[in-house]
Structure formats: C-alpha cells, structure tokens
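Example 3.2
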Amino acid sequence: LELMQMTPEARAGAPARGFEETGITHFSFVVDDPADVYARVEDYGGSKWSDIGIANMIRDPDGHALQLVSD
C-alpha cells in the first residue's frame, strides 16, 4: 500500500472517479458515529457527497471517495 499526498494544484482538472470505473472506486471505514464525521468533513478539507441513512459518502481533500458506516 502506497499513500501519496498531492497538492491541490496537481489535482486541478483531474476527474473524480465514479462507481462505474474499473478498479478501486472507494474505501469504506467503520466509525463510531458516521453522522458526526459527515457533519465535520468540510472542517478537514473534504466534501460531503451523500447521506443515504445507512452510510455516508464523502470525498477526501484529494477527491477519493470514502464510505462511512457504523458497525
């Protein structure tokens, strides 16, 4: 696993990956309170994508899709 950080300038113009793409489309994380994390995601540079009740979808500052679920 290689984790890389890209500056916003390096990501400028890069398309967001959708679920219909080949390969890894998102990562899922089990968190104690998905609604709380969803409410605070913009404070940390991410963006809200959707709140479907059983899971919350967000994008990190680099545009990666992340799913927040509770156990």
